[in-house]
Structure formats: structure tokens, C-alpha cells
Amino acid sequence: MTLWTASDAAAATGGRAIGDWSVTGFGIDSRGIVPGQMFVALKAARDGHDFVAAALDAGAGAALVSRIPDGCDGRALLLVDDVQTALEALGRAGRARTRARVVGVTGSVGKTSTKEMLRHVLSAQGKTHAAIKSYNNHWGVPLTLAAIPPDADFAVIEIGMNHPGEIAPLAAMARPHVAMVTNVGPVHLEAFDDGVPGIAREKASIFRGLESGGAAIWNADLDVSDILATHGTTSFGQTEGADWHLTEVRAGGDSTTCAATTPMGPVLFRIGAPGVHFAMNALAVLAATHALGGDVARAALSLADWTPPDGRGARHRVRLHPDGPPVDLIDDAYNANPSSVGAALALLAATEVPGKGRRIAILGDMKELGPTGPDLHAGLAAHPAMADIHLVHTVGPLMASLHDALPADRRGEHTDDSEAMSAHLRDMIRPGDAVLVKGSLSMKMARLVDGLKALGETGPKE
């Protein structure tokens, strides 16, 4: 399906189209370009213009550039003054022309999982668009908006931040009909002088971008909920009096059963993954579905077969021996902060293990916590879930603080990086264990997930 023609893209950006072309989507990595996509030559760690020729050779329908790269004379290009500015213009134009009802998602933890949950639920009710990856920054949001099909019924936009002042302009670009703050926690502390309250104000700024009459959905269970309530219209949580009130949560081996009272009356629903944090996200998803004009009962049914994506709580069975019980591997390796690590530890602690199976956590550094980082890492030793976790292996200089704070009988291996830890994997697990892998993306904890999978036959958890 054609998404942008040369003339339409040139009109949206004020640029000059070279050639008569059309594109079906967007890509920013020449190595993974899909034929027909527009390659966007962003300048980040490297200048994307250096890879335009390779992207076009790989089948890109055109390239968005601010200069004609060597070897690209006469090829399909959209020439603009500045690539980032033009991408933002395409994003605004994509948002303006679509009929889709748009929901914006932000939060310190679980943005991508909630986005994927919304995609799953809304896809059963209409044509739904959301970014495949965690595209939530200054280039990810316009890229997602520019790729919305004009005939989409729903669009889900994930909005993140690292510093103050980032969310409001992205929300203004997205112009959501529904915006939600899933939660607020100690993330990116080094950028906020007043800590979590400052983060709450930044997260609440998503509500400034709402379309007239839009719904602002916020978490009522937080110490900073009063900051969100100043802007919000609809609350959710376990707190008495929340508009969408989670009254019961029972996490089993492979699912979570929930009950809630809502403006529509009582609702029962089941999620196809265990975890109280998923229950909270699901409740927010039901509230958003209602605000979008969707069918809440149908959405509740759809939650039963939702499972988290790889790196964000996906579960796998690794069978080390044909006759022994499998290892239950929890892949939460994409990112980490004190709130999300606490939720993951609680999930591991609630995981049933057979016979002599153990609950084992392999934790990597949580980044961007500023001078409080070592204390926040050490503080995990006192998390209530630790009482039901048998062994904790740690990776990175910050996690050394947790390693030192753990009781001797729970203190596992400690290494400076995930590559060094990978050498210990075969000796660290045995049949029947439940293993959590979690850490900030830069710690490359996914290497350990891949290493654990490689030890045996692997399949999704049934």
C-alpha cells in the first residue's frame, strides 16, 4: 500500500522530490530496510547520508536527505533543508490526514508493553497502527505518525523522555484523543533536580497535547498522583475511589486473573501473562479503550491471549535434559529502573518452581540514576520479593552495591559485564529453575538470554 507519493511528501515538507516515486513506510537502518520504505538519513552516532546508497541498493523506495550523497545523483530522493525538521513535518501531516483515533502512552515503566497491549486489543476492533519498535523519542514519534495509514481506525503513540521539556512538544505533534500516564518512578533522576515530582510533572505534560474533549488517564496509586490529578480526567489503580478500580489480582503460573469496578460496572478479565504490573497496565488499556469509543467487553476478552514481547517479560522454556523439568526463563532484558526491577522481582518470587527448582535473578546495572545510583542498587536487597528468591547474580559496577548488600546465602556471581557473566551460565542453572534476566539496555543482558536459550531446546512458555 502506497503511504506517500513523491508529490505528497514534497508538499508536506517543502522539499524537492527527485524522481517520481512512492513509499510504503519508513526505515532508519540501511541494514534492515524493507523494499519500498523511505530511508530517513538521520544524524545520530553516525550520519545516515553515508548509508543512503546502500539503502537504495537494498530496495528503499526513496531517501529523505539534506544533501545528495555520493553516487546518488538521479536516484529517488526527497531533498530538504534539514532531515529532522522534515521528518517532523511528515509526522504532523500524517497525523492530520488520518481518521484514526489516537492514544498516547507515557510512563516510567511499561510504556512499550502497554503500547503492545493496546495494539493487540484494538486490532481486534479495527485497523490499528503502532510502531514495531520502541520509537518514542524526538525522531521515533514523528516516524510513527508519518507511517499512520490514512484509513486506520486507531493509532498508538509511545512517548518517552530523558530530560525535562521533551514530552510536551511530542504530545502536541501527536494530538492524542486519549493520553495516559502508566506510572511514575525514579528514572532519569540525573536530569531532574527535584527527583520524582519533577518526573511526574514531565509525564503529566502529555496531557497538554490532548485534542479538545480528550481523556487524560492517570495512575492513582502513586506518591505523586496528586500531580497527575491536576491535569487528569480519569484515574485507575488499586486505590479506593479510582474511576477504574482494580479490586482483585491473582497471578498464576502463566496468567493473571483480575476483577475491577468501572464506570460501566464490574469487569472480570484475564491476562495471558503473570504479573501485578501487567494487571495495572491492562486496567489502563480498558479505560483507554472505553475513552476511544471501543468495546470494553471485547477488549477484556482479547487480553487473555496477550503476551509480552521479547525483552519485556516474555517467557521461554529451556529444556536442559530430556527427562528433567524445563527452566522457566523470564526475558526482561530490554531496560531497567528501580520500579521495573521491583516488579520483575515480585514476578519471579511468585513463580512456581518444581521440586528442587530455584528462583534466580541475573540483574544488570540500572542507568541514569545520578548520585543516588549506588544506594538505589543496594536498596534492592531489602525488596520484599528477595525473601522468595534463592540466588542473585549481578552484572556491572553499580550492581556491585547490590552484590555487597545481599545476604551471603543469596549472593551469586558478580562480573563487570554481561560477556564475562556468560561464561558462568552453564554452571548457574539446573532443570526446574526459574530465571529472570533484567538490566538497562546498555548492559547487553540480552546476550545472557540468548546464552541461556542456547543451552537447551527452547520454546515459548505454554
TrEMBL record:
Compartments it resides in: Cytoplasm
The UniProt record lists the keyword Lipid metabolism: no
Ranges of residues in domain Mur ligase C-terminal: 316-440
List of residues binding ATP: 107-113
Domain Mur ligase central: residue ranges: 105-288
InterPro entries per the UniProt record, alphabetical: Mur-like_cat_sf (IPR036565), Mur_ligase_C (IPR004101), Mur_ligase_C_dom_sf (IPR036615), Mur_ligase_cen (IPR013221), Mur_ligase_N (IPR000713), MurCDEF_CellWall_CoF430Synth (IPR051046), MurE/MurF_N (IPR035911), UDP-N-AcMur_synth (IPR005863)
Enzyme category, top tier: ligase
UniProt EC number: 6.3.2.10
A single BP term in Gene Ontology: cell division
Pathway membership: Cell wall biogenesis; peptidoglycan biosynthesis
Pfam family name, one: Mur_ligase_M
SUPFAM superfamilies: MurD-like peptide ligases, catalytic domain, MurD-like peptide ligases, peptide-binding domain, MurE/MurF N-terminal domain
Keywords, in A-Z order: ATP-binding, Cell cycle, Cell division, Cell shape, Cell wall biogenesis/degradation, Cytoplasm, Ligase, Nucleotide-binding, Peptidoglycan synthesis
GO molecular function, one term: UDP-N-acetylmuramoylalanyl-D-glutamyl-2,6-diaminopimelate-D-alanyl-D-alanine ligase activity
Catalytic function, reaction form: D-alanyl-D-alanine + UDP-N-acetyl-alpha-D-muramoyl-L-alanyl-gamma-D-glutamyl-meso-2,6-diaminopimelate + ATP = UDP-N-acetyl-alpha-D-muramoyl-L-alanyl-gamma-D-glutamyl-meso-2,6-diaminopimeloyl-D-alanyl-D-alanine + ADP + phosphate + H(+)
Family: Belongs to the MurCDEF family. MurF subfamily.
Its biological purpose: Involved in cell wall formation. Catalyzes the final step in the synthesis of UDP-N-acetylmuramoyl-pentapeptide, the precursor of murein.
PANTHER family for the chain: UDP-N-ACETYLMURAMOYL-TRIPEPTIDE--D-ALANYL-D-ALANINE LIGASE
Listed name of the protein: UDP-N-acetylmuramoyl-tripeptide--D-alanyl-D-alanine ligase
Protein species of origin: Jannaschia pohangensis
